[in-house]
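2024-03-11 09:14:02 INFO receiving multi-entity request
2024-03-11 09:14:02 INFO entity count = three
2024-03-11 09:14:03 INFO echoing inputs for audit
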Amino acid sequence: MRNLIDILDLSVEEIDELISVANDIIADPVKYSESCKGKILATLFFEPSTRTRLSFEAAMLNLGGSVLGFSEAGSSSTAKGESVADTIRTVNCYADIIAMRHPKEGAPIVASKASHIPIINAGDGGHFHPTQTLTDLLTISRHKGRLNDLTIGLCGDLKFGRTVHSLIAAFARYSGIKFVLISPEELRVPEYVKTETLDKKGIPYREVKTLEEAMPELDILYMTRIQRERFADPAEYERLKNSFVLDLEKLEHAKKDLCIMHPLPRVNEISTKVDSDPRACYFDQALCGKYIRMALILKLLAETPVPCSLDEHEEELVNKVFCDNPRCITSVEQEIDHIFHYTDKENGVCRCAYCEAQTKI
Amino acid sequence: MRNLIDILDLSVEEIDELISVANDIIADPVKYSESCKGKILATLFFEPSTRTRLSFEAAMLNLGGSVLGFSEAGSSSTAKGESVADTIRTVNCYADIIAMRHPKEGAPIVASKASHIPIINAGDGGHFHPTQTLTDLLTISRHKGRLNDLTIGLCGDLKFGRTVHSLIAAFARYSGIKFVLISPEELRVPEYVKTETLDKKGIPYREVKTLEEAMPELDILYMTRIQRERFADPAEYERLKNSFVLDLEKLEHAKKDLCIMHPLPRVNEISTKVDSDPRACYFDQALCGKYIRMALILKLLAETPVPCSLDEHEEELVNKVFCDNPRCITSVEQEIDHIFHYTDKENGVCRCAYCEAQTKI
Amino acid sequence: MRNLIDILDLSVEEIDELISVANDIIADPVKYSESCKGKILATLFFEPSTRTRLSFEAAMLNLGGSVLGFSEAGSSSTAKGESVADTIRTVNCYADIIAMRHPKEGAPIVASKASHIPIINAGDGGHFHPTQTLTDLLTISRHKGRLNDLTIGLCGDLKFGRTVHSLIAAFARYSGIKFVLISPEELRVPEYVKTETLDKKGIPYREVKTLEEAMPELDILYMTRIQRERFADPAEYERLKNSFVLDLEKLEHAKKDLCIMHPLPRVNEISTKVDSDPRACYFDQALCGKYIRMALILKLLAETPVPCSLDEHEEELVNKVFCDNPRCITSVEQEIDHIFHYTDKENGVCRCAYCEAQTKI
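2024-03-11 09:21:47 INFO inference complete, emitting structure
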């Protein structure tokens, strides 16, 4: 494999291997401290994200490598109208591996088509963030000793929460998984996630409206932030906001070995009083993030480069259907082919190859 | 000692030691060029300051270490509402030592409570800037061969000048020090500095309104910039501004071995014609800044980490009095305890533990 | 030589030598991978330019050196009113070599006067960009095997195009050069370039209005972008813009070994369909840019520093004539001497030493 765009680009075996290498690095960091000597990671952050960027930079420095890049688009050639493809072709001259974050969905796919060096998607709009999911998997693996037979509570914004959708997709491949989906009515997991992942794979789940009713059965509690802007009615936000805040009181009936997680940054959805509870795993998550990124960089740099191409699909619609999602990279990238793949040919249902927006022809 | 928040965190002996190590580095930089190999300094600049940031980065690179961080808050998680404490806990996963600059007073104290790695205060609002003071002390030590028996002229904005207050506090611990305070009426040294430091320690000083009358007796002349915004009446600024500008003419009766200093950047308060005068020490100051920061990083990394806590005080008021200083970190940090210490219990006078704003209960 | 401000600071022999070293680095990069160990490059970008900055950073890292700096002026001391000269004097304490980009013409000359370490001009306003020209020369040398006996087509904005003027100046020193100048009427090469370089050196050239008529004879085609803002009449821009866009159709009658170049970023002036044509050299140009910068850094660091001074001219007018070019560094730098050199003393014609704006006294 050459790029990491979506967590599902990695097989279950490959994820096991990355977790194994990460654990080895944690056990003996000195052994890896020169592994990437002479190599350069380019952190191309077209949209700022200090935590993710610093995690990647620390990972590469801890491997003995170097880093260059930019931390926001204002100061990059993008402001001059340069395409993502051209930026990537140029950076191919300066680095050995790229970690990129872009506000438009599908931008890393465009990048991977233009690149001879590995692309790691560090977040594309509200679409994918595979290294966050790898971080979550390593954290759970270390705290629980396994990735199967777990009851996982997902709490907060399950409608727009990118990390939540990715975690569901990742865990759908393990056995004995049960989800408890804890959110306001308005922010429930979207239908297509239920249809295409949960129901399709026969994964049991239930939807509840309060943390308290879910708490006693959870092995993992994954908290996410609910933003005021997600509510059509601000009064509804005000009414609901505290129901999805975790505090010591709500933990009263939780399992003794519950693993409490949060992708961070947290604002108020976990009270700071929870921080000293031994079940709080969210800062350990940040540390795991550095180690799994180290393992990922090692893996991608070790692989022989292959010519880039989009996955082959039996039938590709090229410039026959046009994506109208304003968040898709096709809305801004010049001279880009609009590519759709059929998901249901009989009914003419197809998805944009970049952002996965679905349409019917 | 584990953190450097205020120059008075260091004893006179510790400062001597840092000066000694800095001089050793200047004499033999190659000896130290791998001292911090494999170590990472995080420069967290929530407010920009190129000079200070580059000085720290050069220091760490010259020690064979690496650097990561951010240079302004806009692109950091702060914009998303993350607390300083959480940012620090996360960066603890990525680095071995932190240098932070923050616009709010007391922010480094919050950081030190959340951190297991050393915190160096690179400036908190108009409050402290201890590495500038260390820089000043090293410069004077190298040019004068001593830190006692000196007549020190402080010129310019003595009311808001953070580096001036810190220098007074630092020099108050040496013998034979005399201050000549040269400023407009409106920008004189604040009463509390006179009361709590100068008078308390019996340090002679006099206040004058012109550079000329002070010049002949000075061993050190420390220039600071007077900003238009500090004057209630703009006409007053116009009337005064040139009185506090140093030029060759004003140096006519200065001692031959006068040491002229300025924390930089300078705008017009020292004429460029003074630059080639052998008494101009301000660019040498910039060089000293790098070396003393190298010595400081070495010292802090060598010490065994201790659990963080605020200094113990006999009586701490926790969440009984609330700080109303809008420049204090307590005005923005969520779920932070408001802590006050008595300075005069009989009269109910106490100070905010973070920003030192005084109040009466 | 100690600084690189203008391509003509380098002799033809020095350029040959840089090209030779660059080729050696390309052939054996490992040999150079520790050449600058322990050295620091400061990238001082008072105006953003990601491509150029990353190219310099990759160059220094590939030499085993380190990098520090800033990527835009907002976060630097410039915002506080610090002069370029003072910034440079300070950075002299932190680095061994400086690459600077500044929006004001002549700023690197001010920098070189204040610096004891080499200054590389990474672009000053619309004035010079010598490392771009070195990049172009290396690219042509590698693709054509020579820098003489070439018919060079320059297409697009020849009036404001800094890289075009520099390339003309550089190639004027080689034999057998012919230029074909392809541009809209409004954006033709300025008269002074024709007079002072082309005519003066007897270099044949012709001006045409379409790419098609020039194409068959060209050995090199150097494309530049035409910006709407350069046209007084927007309708004129609309009328013309596609005439100067390169596509496969226009390449129909081009030589088989034509070398197509562009300084990048490109927006639409070269169709992406040209990218896969073997004659497209513009991404190879980006790679050459890194290598020639590596050769340049090695050369400048190897030379013994000499005290800085402006070139000596027989007659220098100091503070007698004042530059009124708002784009010149003299418009913002405090306490700077205005210096003019005669180009035609009889007629009282002289040029600003910084920005070269011509005036008559």
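2024-03-11 09:21:48 INFO post-check: The CA atoms of residues 42 and 98 of chain B lie 5 Å apart.
2024-03-11 09:21:48 INFO post-check: Chain B has three domains: 7-128+288-302, 130-286, 316-360.
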